[in-house]
Design brief:
The complex is a heterotrimer of chains A (109), B (159) and C (95). Chain A has 109 residues and is mainly alpha-helical. Helix content of chain A is 78%, strand content 0%. The mean pLDDT of chain A is 83. Chain C has three helices and no strands. Chain C is flat, with a radius of gyration of 17 Å. The chains are: A mainly alpha (109), B mainly alpha (159), C mainly alpha (95).
Chain lengths: 109, 159, 95
């Protein structure tokens, strides 16, 4: 049983690390500011969620686990607020988004 | 009043979580601090159904959050595939649609869920329309009358 | 196994640092700073397990809150040109 939980927590940790790096790559590759927010939100949801889940499985039912849950709730509630504030401030200051052309071909940056 | 009591309980639990000590002095100090914060919040008039929406607590926890987590995982995987694809197949689109929620709390839950899901991002939020930036054209087309809209409305209607 | 997470988070912070250096707009830099804050918070949590010192989790909580408040405060400054603005009017933002 302990082995099983250990294996699951390692899988979560590795997957979370992978999504954190993917978010970083997206932050560099995406063509404009608004699309970069989408890349960063991969880190903040999947990356942070899986990493915290992996740590939670390592911790077991203790006060540490409760702190990890509080950390997860903080990210869960606050990160969309920050992303929305960023986007709406950029829109208010007149930063024009890069939009794809209307026809049905995938756009290239 | 019920909101003040639940706020007091939540603040006290937060104190216990951070301190981790259960001596008599720290327990009473925590109670004093929580009570002081609740008094200040009542003076500021923020301890109401909007700042502390307990009326949809348990139902949201049991039915809406698991569904939202599933959606986040699905679209997060989709966005990461697009990021790692060498051709970078994105087609950023701005779309505006009218949400069916009636209260401010429901509107905020809907807009926050849109932002939390990778691939869609709410830019401007108002009762008569949410302006959404989507990473792909398909994501923008799926917004109006979506399942998320229906689920948040059902959540908001629940007593 | 914590080493993998540590290295990945440091790489993610490095990538975000490159984006914050490249810009081009101030909002790109803010987004990168926000991501660095999130990664630093996760790094603190992972390090607390790696070194067996759970006190670091408290630091991670405080860091997460400071990250959010800092981002919102800087945004408010750039949007209204003033930190004390109540933000309830339909005024034109300061240019």
């Amino acid at each position: 049983m302990t082995m099983l939980i250990d294996a699951a927590s390692w899988a979560c940790l590795v997957a979370g690390s992978f999504f954190c790096v993917v978010g970083g790559i997206g932050l560099l590759r995406m063509p404009d500011f608004y699309t970069r927010i989408h890349a960063a939100s991969v880190t903040e949801t999947l990356g942070a969620g899986l990493l915290l889940l992996g740590l939670l499985l390592q911790a077991g039912p203790t006060l540490i686990a409760a702190k990890l849950v509080a950390l997860g709730l903080l990210v869960f509630f606050a990160s969309p607020t920050a992303a929305h504030a960023l986007a709406s401030a950029a829109m208010t200051r007149g930063l024009a988004p890069l939009l794809a052309p209307r026809e049905d071909t995938p756009s290239k940056p | 009043m019920i909101h003040s009591v639940s706020m007091l309980v939540v603040l006290y639990l937060f104190w216990l979580l951070l301190s981790g000590n259960f001596g008599a002095f720290l327990l009473s100090a925590g109670a004093g601090c929580a009570a002081a914060v609740v008094l200040i919040a009542r003076r500021m008039d923020v301890a109401d159904h909007e700042g502390h929406p307990i009326h949809l607590g348990l139902r949201a926890l049991l039915s809406y959050w698991p569904w939202l987590v599933k959606e986040i995982v699905k679209s997060g995987w989709d966005v990461s595939r697009r990021i790692l694809d060498p051709r970078l197949p994105v087609s950023p689109t701005l779309a505006s649609f009218k949400p069916s929620q009636k209260t401010d709390v429901g509107l905020v839950i809907h807009a926050n869920s849109i932002t939390l899901t990778p691939g869609t991002l709410s830019v401007q939020v108002a009762q008569d329309g949410i302006l959404v930036h989507a990473l792909t054209r398909e994501g923008a087309a799926a917004l109006a009358g979506s399942e998320m809209d229906r689920r948040v409305s059902r959540l908001e209607d629940s007593p | 196994m914590f080493a993998v997470a540590t290295v990945a988070l440091i790489v993610a912070v490095g990538l975000a640092l490159v984006r914050s250096a490249l810009g081009p707009s101030v909002f790109d830099r803010l987004l990168a700073a926000n991501k660095i804050g999130t990664c630093a918070m996760l790094l603190l949590a992972v390090m607390s397990f790696r070194n067996g010192r759970p006190e670091f989790l408290d630091l991670a909580l405080v860091y997460g809150m400071l990250n959010i408040i800092g981002t919102i405060a800087i945004l408010k400054y750039f949007r209204h040109g003033d930190l004390g603005d109540p933000g309830d009017g339909d005024r034109e933002p300061a240019q």
